[in-house]
Design brief:
The chain has 320 residues and is mainly α. It has one domain: Rhopdopsin 7-helix transmembrane proteins. 77% of the residues lie in helices and 3% in strands. A three-stranded mixed beta sheet has the order 2-1-3. 35% of the residues are buried.
Length: 320
């Protein structure tokens, strides 16, 4: 009889969750700071969406840019940046005006899915963009053949597929965990290391899986990017006389954005067992400031892109 009583309890623990919603702590508890953050992040979010949308429209409307492998990949990066900024920022802005920051169980799992889907896709796309620059600088005679339209579409497809597979592998075991007790998440969005700690089971093995998945993806893409930019700088230094400083300026700007994106991801997901107070600040960098900096560093400093934007503005003014 004792065995029959324990069986339903085991079924309950494994098959459903008692937690229907989670409580987000947000960035701070001060009402004055929350009002300031509401204004600040509203402006930041508007700038992210307008800046990246302008880049996407400019690339799509300009035939020379749309046919260029570099700008084709940049347009896709801006598209991903708009999604990366939208999975959590709108809710965070709305929560600044709320006393209790609640999110449903399904909404929490959706945030985890889109974060890893978009984040994983962007990591692989950044590696593809570094490869494009490597071919353009180190093998210029073979550039158009190597970076054909079919290759560019294939690189974008691989980035999206990698992000989707990575995200599904993360969410699959998270959504089936039993959540029967604490439901407070110390962040402004649902992040995987924080959510799995709320499960009513030992999550040590899950932490190991998370390291081998998110940590490995972040670290490997970051190392590939550093190697690519190092090879580019060495090649420019050996074969060019006046372009070293320009290449160094461009690569250093790219490396800065890459570090702001990959650094927090590596720090958070390689050490999932220990939660640091700085993790919340690091989350702001790769979910908010990276989508803001990408259009500035990769495109708005580019003369060809600025000329295309000016042409688009003049065409729009003529129609009006």
């Amino acid at each position: 009889m004792a065995q029959k009583k324990s069986q339903p309890e085991m079924m309950d623990l494994q098959n459903y969750s008692l937690v229907s919603e989670f409580v987000l702590h947000g960035l701070c508890s001060s009402r004055y700071l929350q009002f300031f953050f509401f204004i600040f992040f509203s402006v930041i979010y508007a700038a992210i969406m307008l800046g990246n949308l302008l880049i996407v429209v400019t690339v799509m409307s300009n035939p020379s840019l749309h046919s260029s492998p570099m700008y084709f990949l940049l347009g896709n990066l801006s598209f991903l940046d708009m999604w990366l900024a939208s999975f959590a920022i709108p809710k965070m802005i709305r929560d600044f005006l709320s006393d209790r920051k609640l999110i449903s169980f399904g909404g929490c799992m959706a945030q985890i899915f889109f974060l890893h889907f978009i984040g994983g896709s962007e990591m692989v796309l950044l590696v593809s963009m570094a490869y494009d620059r490597y071919v353009a600088i180190c093998k210029p005679l073979h550039y158009m053949t190597t970076m054909s339209r079919r290759t560019c579409i294939g690189l974008v497809f691989v980035s999206w597929t990698t992000g989707f597979v990575h995200s599904i592998s993360q969410v699959a075991f998270t959504v089936n965990l039993p959540y029967c007790g604490p439901n407070e998440v110390d962040s402004f969005f649902c992040d995987l290391p924080l959510v799995i700690k709320l499960a009513c089971v030992d999550t040590y093995i899950l932490g190991i899986l998370m390291i081998s998945d998110s940590g490995l993806l972040s670290m490997s893409c970051f190392l590939l990017l550093l190697i690519s930019y190092t090879v580019i700088l060495v090649t420019v230094q050996q074969h060019a006389t006046g372009g070293v400083s320009k290449a160094l300026s461009t690569c250093s700007a790219h490396i800065m954005v890459v570090t702001l994106f990959f650094g927090p991801c590596i720090f958070i997901y390689v050490w999932p067992f220990n939660r640091f107070t700085v993790d919340k600040l690091l989350s702001v960098f790769y979910t908010i400031f990276t989508p803001l900096l990408n259009p500035i560093i990769y495109t708005l400093r580019n003369k060809e892109m600025k000329a295309a934007m000016k042409k688009l503005r003049n065409r729009h003014a003529t129609f009006n």
